[in-house]
Request: fold
Amino acid sequence: MALLTEAFFRQSPWVGSDIKALAVRRDQNWTVTVCVPALAGHLTTAAEFDDAVTAAAAELTTLLEQRLPGRVSVVCNTRGTRVGPLSGQYFTLSGSAVDYGEDGLVGRGNARTGVISGVHGAGNEATFGKNPVYHVGKVGGWLADTAAATVAARFGPCRIGLLWRNGAPYDQPASIQITTTRPAPEGDTEELVRTTLARTDWLDDLLTGRYLPRVEPFDKLLDDLGPVTG
Reply:
């Protein structure tokens, strides 16, 4: 669905290449949130840009509803407005966020724990670097880790998956996924997670706490492997 959404928008001459698509499915219902850049020279005002993405979203919604059994909602540029200067919108010369210096050199997949585990669910937002203003990867990672620790304290090892749309408050994720190794009432675990998402005491920990780059002592890591076997 994400690839299809990208391909759909790339057909339009006014659309740049740096398209972000988030597809969320609940049962047979789909919500697709898209961030679409405009290429300079094709659209001239914020209102014209808003009309273009709104019309494209409606067209894509209709196409998908013809092929999918459930409800479909396509939303574009959730941070965009119809007013204000072009510089406040996602208008670009290159068609990508490289215009703003966001070239992604820090790399995606810099896991905040220092380890990227294959075949396991994991976030891929870089914890360090990138734009220091839009730091959803830092705060969201802290909230996810804290929520997982809270659920694990009551129900044993668990996995917490969280998705946010661009611009959404932290306590209003697009999706919450909770998996526990021991049976746990779904309402109880979700309440624990949502209570954590309402916390705002993450700043000190992000600046001075658990996510600062560090290297554990070699001997400790060696000991963690367990005793030498014959």
About this structure: The mean pLDDT is 83. Residues 46 and 124 are 31 Å apart (CA to CA). The longest helix spans residues 46-65.
